[in-house]
Amino acid sequence: MSDLLAGRADIAAGLAVHGADAVDGSAPASVRAALVAADLPARLAAKDPTLWGPAAEATARTRLGWLDTHARARELLPQLAELTEELADLDHVVLAGTGGSSLAPEVIARTLGRPLTVLDGTDPGEVRAALADRLDRTVVVVAGESGATVETDSIRRAYWQAFLDAGLTEAETARHFVVVTDPGSPLEGLADELGVVVIQSDPEVGARHSALTAFGLVPAALAGAPVADLLDDAEALAGALDRHRDNPGLALGAALAAAATTGRDTVALVSDGTGLDGLGDWAEQLLAGSTGKAGRGILPVVVEAPDAPGATGPDVLTVGYGGALGPGAAPGPADVAVNGPLGAQFLTWEYATALAAAVLDVDPFGQPDVAESKEHTARLLADGPPAESPSATEGAIEVYAPAGAPADLAGALRWLLAGLGDDGYLAVTAYLDRWGDAAVTGLRPLLARATARPVTFGWGPRCLHSTGQYHKGGPRAGSHLQLTGAVTGDLPVPGRPYTFGDLQAAQAAGDRRALAGRGRPVLRLHLTERAAGVAQLLDAAGRTLT
Predict the structure, then answer these.
(1) Helix/strand/coil for 16
(2) Which of 19, 83, 342, 373 has the smallest number of Cβ neighbours within 10 A?
(3) pLDDT bracket for residue 465 (50, 70, 90)
């Protein structure tokens, strides 16, 4: 039996958190004891909006519905069953959404083995491939609190036009869409005009916490997932959230906070192989978006395996996650292990993150730094792309090195890593095709092996709605490697004066401007031929950085 299992675990409703007491015990004073003394477990379970200070109270009053949204969501089940039956011939489900509203249903579908295409990028090749895939059998779930997010709106427009171009009438096209949005939103009004089915989400739950609302349940249910089981799992756990013992959310939250306040403010998220495929990506956006503010925060890093570079370290808290452990099984080499059913996992992580935010004294529900990149993008789309010249061109890679950095590829990469120092981290962001250019994800472990500092990887523009808040509002310790690629075969955005290629380039440039404006170093590498550029970059990272 592992040391983790030998210690006391907090267990409720089939979900267990192992190792948390040891992490908390390593702090000068017990965070868990302080939370219990202030009665925070019960106050949070009772939706006390004062837990994060006066400045956050107004927002918290309207954003704590995730604590019991699983109960209200049961009202959706008959409607979802009816809708699934009505659309039984449309068995290819595409989700157009961003951030938590797309990551949660992706986790559900991947974990339960249900087919779901999540389209939250603006790469023309990615969008074109999706449009060409079984269009006649496709239902598009358009998800957004307001519908104003540019990538979601652009994808909606592209699909609508594709159905019309295929010979469908507007009424026939409307049958291929389902809209999930907040009550009274502009997207709801548009859907009503177009004759599209609308399912309202819980207005007291923000996108980061929306896994068990219509945002998570509708696309998952259409894809065939048994979503009632998720609600059952969450409901079974909810009764433990006001307790001082056998409260997995309290155990995890205290461990996250204790680690973050004692120099271990990086959380490596790693699957233990027992299920819950992709939960780390969802937890990453929850932790980064909730805590990365006012120069503070918890940096989540999704790692490929327990032995992957960056999974451990002196300032890293390693958290393993997975399904239920079988008899005699060990949760692996993690500091903390969280095992149990997916619906309970969602609620546990949300509760734990909210407690950790209270200890860090940040508002877990606001996102004050997210809009900046969007504003830069809008201006770039209106004014045109910035004039930029590469500092060097090597093979299929153009190097755009910042001032003071070496101009060549190997030198610029070494300069970027050398600048991390003792407390920095590197964020790799790829504004590329998440499917066609998937091999580039191999860059993260290569770079992590070359430095003792954390290295994250994210797809743009997905990262703007997941980790973007931390990168701009968290500790000023991040350096950034941005990857862009040449577009062959661009795609117009119907009804807009720009293409998907224009939009992707503007989003990347807007992100660079927002980061540079906050003093974050940004190195951009542009792949003039994508497959060759990815191969060249991986080779360069492997050869020159080891």
Answers:
(1) strand
(2) 83
(3) confident
| pLDDT, tens digit, 9 for 90 and up, residues 19-29 | 999 999 999 99
In the block, which residue shows the tokens 């995890």?
252
CA gyration radius, the chain: 23
Looking at residue 233, its amino acid is D
Cis peptide before 300 (omega within 30 of 0): no
Q: Report which of 357, 261, 322 is spatially closest to residue 28, judged by C-alpha positions.
A: 261
Is 352:368 a contact under the CB 8 Å cutoff?
no
From 269, 326, 272, 265, select the one nearest 291 (Cα to Cα): 265
**For residue 319, which of 286, 282, 272, 352 has the smallest C-alpha distance?**
272
Longest alpha-carbon distance in the chain: 69
Distance (Å, rounded) from C-alpha 317 to C-alpha 299? 10
- Rounded distance between C-alpha atoms, residue 11 and residue 16, angstroms: 4
519 neighbors 404 (Cβ within 8 angstroms): no
Amino acid (one-letter) located at 411: G
pTM over 0.90: yes
| Spatial contact of 312 and 138, defined as CB atoms under 8 Å apart | no
Q: DSSP letter string over 245-257?
A: SS-HHHHHHHHHH
Which structure tokens are listed for 297? 């925060």
> What pLDDT band is residue 2 in, cutting at 50, 70 and 90?
very low
502 is written with which tokens?
């224009």
Convert the pLDDT of each residue in 360-392 to its tens digit.
999 999 888 777 778 888 898 998 888 899 999
Helix 530-544 and helix 443-450, axial crossing angle in degrees, nearest 10: 20
Cβ atoms within 10 Å, residue 229: 13
3-state helix vs strand vs coil in the chain, percent to 5: 45, 15, 35
Q: Which residues contact 212 (CB under 8 A, 6 or more apart)?
A: 66, 69, 70, 73, 230, 231, 234, 343, 346, 347
pLDDT surpassing 70 at residue 326? no
